[in-house]
């Protein structure tokens, strides 16, 4: 843990927090006189340097057994493996081509990485990081989502398709689902057969039925550029982040209707649902993390806007560690880093 006087991300962010009146954002050892009511829903607890990493950082995945946070460093053409307990990079996979999506599958000890530049998904052994297979998808391979019951990894790619990989053989499946344009974030039902897909360029959510292949469209009125997405399947709610304007939009998954629409951090690319606390975290590239409270499936309010830094818009919520890991590209005179925020009750 760094002192707030050190020349680090702490100094940058804590200065912004002080300007915003968020004293409770400080690490516990420095939060003099902060009480529960002053404490924000997220508290900065660590910054993990990423030596030599340049450019944009993209999507994250977690190896829970080894307590590792793994992510695509798109601008660096690498994948970085961070020991979440030790707080340092322990391995770098090089030679990639604009890596975007990443997915670690614990029961198989495999890491899958989608490359936008080559359109290939690379498969690595999760222990040795040896390359096991390469699967072709044409171009712009992006987000990855795993269906554990079917042993199938879904890949969004190209000008409008969701395709699958049989993870037991690492072969591409013949069945794929077509949409109108490049699929951004998408989510799978585990209790049903639908895939919800953000089509950001055309301002709608595609709803694919994996059983019969049908595709419905839920048009978004008054908002657009819907990039990140999360699903609360128990309450039947789909959370979207839109960039024009910057909003949290909540849809009823039974009807596709908007039930909530609130201002949010700008330039977002990820969105996390904290089911235990009934919260939504939206990191924005504008330098803030919007935190929302879900009072009930139809009622939401903003709890806080937590300062981060410009460009920090991708990450993950590590449920078992109660922490948000946020990827930050190089900024001003600071090198790339992963910022760690602890969720507070």
Please explain how this structure is put together.
By secondary structure, this protein is mainly beta. The chain has a domain at 56-183: Methylamine Dehydrogenase, Chain H (7 Propeller). Helix content is 3%, strand content 50%. The strands form seven sheets. Strands 1-28-27-26 form a four-stranded antiparallel β-sheet, with no helix packed on it. It has a four-stranded antiparallel β-sheet with strand order 2-3-4-5, with no helix packed on it. Strand 18 (224-232) and strand 19 (237-244) form a beta hairpin. The longest helix is centred in the N-terminal third of the chain and has 11 residues, at 9-19. Mean pLDDT is 92; it is low at 1-7 and 27-37.
Cα distance, first to last residue?
21 Å
Largest sheet: 4 strands, antiparallel
The total of helices stands at: 1
> What is the CATH top level name of the domain at 56-183?
Mainly Beta
Given as residue ranges, the uncertain stretches (5+ residues, pLDDT < 50) are 1-7, 27-37
List the helices and strands and how they pair.
Elements: H1 9-19, E1 42-49, E2 60-63, E3 68-73, E4 78-83, E5 88-93, E6 99-105, E7 110-115, E8 120-125, E9 131-136, E10 144-147, E11 152-157, E12 161-166, E13 171-178, E14 186-188, E15 194-199, E16 204-209, E17 215-219, E18 224-232, E19 237-244, E20 246-252, E21 258-263, E22 272-274, E23 279-284, E24 288-296, E25 299-307, E26 314-318, E27 323-328, E28 337-343
Antiparallel strand pairs: 1-28, 2-3, 3-4, 4-5, 6-7, 7-8, 8-9, 10-11, 11-12, 12-13, 14-15, 15-16, 16-17, 18-19, 19-20, 20-21, 22-23, 23-24, 24-25, 26-27, 27-28
